[in-house]
Amino acid sequence: ELREAVEEVLPDLERDGVRVFYLSSASPTPGVEALLPAIEAAPDEPLPAQHRAGVTANSKAMYIYTSGTTGLPKAAVITELKLMMVASLGWICGLRPDDVVYTTLPLYHSAGLLVGVGGCLEVGATCVLRSKFSASQFWADCRRYNVSVIQYVGELMRYLCNTPKRADDREHGVRMALGNGMRVEVWKEFLRRFGPVAVWEFYGATEGNAGFINYTG
To answer: Going by C-beta distance under 8 Å and a sequence separation of 6 or more, which residues neighbour residue 64?
Structure first.
């Protein structure tokens, strides 16, 4: 989806020594490598300790671009410590190793990557990823993959509540929802229609230094 945008800035990235990858088996763009073959060929053993030498809690783990409050998107620094702290959110909310977490959120966003994938890595849970959110296929996916935990942003839940009602609306194994930004009227309608799912609403800014969890429901 981002091929044209990548190719537009690729000369500048190459000049700055930045390597670019597609998470696919082949690359349609000269100068961009395909990462999937390397991932599939990687051994299962842990990386040698020297690759982690010098890494501390304050080391930069990644950058996540966020719109913040004004202007163009900016790169927010995610340290190793912040990565681990945000990934532990699922565990704090009751995520278990036997859970199957379903996320349709983009992985360039803190919620999808750090809470969703990171939370599964933290506790050893299974993560089910969908490339695009589909309101009509959401619950069918949950049944197909034995999903027990879903991720959301507020509008996602509103879209689910706006789908035509079905006889099997409550036929699923979802026990918990993790997310943020759900309006109170949507929250009530979601529980009334789809059953007693434990909703763990949280708030945190990618570039911020504090967060909140509504643990009482």
So the answer is: 75, 76, 78, 108, 109, 110, 113, 206
